[in-house]
């Protein structure tokens, strides 16, 4: 059986993906917050689809964030999350160091506000 992964959040569709079918955001399903143990809270996680996430993201589990699919930046420089864009990509320093993020996850961004 092939595991179909969401292009937006990289979770397996039907097994963790909370994105709407049209890919336009999360369906705000009730979820129990999961404790992240490996990645510190300020780590920037970089998906294969060039999205940046933060530990505790509502549509990811820590078990999904592994190399070589993902890269990450532990202890990123101050302000990197806010500057992140296509003109200022964030490049992973650990995991898959070829990964670059050009977009921020909307759920992670909302959680910071």
**Proportion of residues in β-strands:** 15-25%
Let me know the number of strands.
7
Rg value? 13 Å
Question: Helical segment tally?
Answer: 2
Terminal CA distance: 40 Å
Question: Which overall shape is indicated by the principal axes computed on the Cα atoms?
Answer: globular
Report the structural category: mainly beta
Residue-averaged pLDDT, rounded?
83
The unreliable regions are 23-32
The percent of residues in helical segments reads under 10%
Summarize this, please?
The chain is mainly β. The protein contains 2 helices and 7 strands; from the N terminus they run βββαββββα.
Task: Summarize the topology.
Elements (H helix, E strand, L loop, with lengths): L43 E3 L4 E3 L17 E3 L6 H4 L6 E2 L2 E2 L4 E2 L1 E2 L1 H7 L1
Parallel strand pairs: 2-7
Antiparallel strand pairs: 1-2, 1-3, 3-5, 4-6
Written description of the protein model:
The protein has 2 helices and 7 strands. The chain has helices at residues 80-83, 106-112; strands spanning 44-46, 51-53, 71-73, 90-91, 94-95, 100-101, 103-104. The protein has 113 residues and is mostly beta strands.
Attribute tags:
mainly beta, five-stranded mixed beta sheet, globular
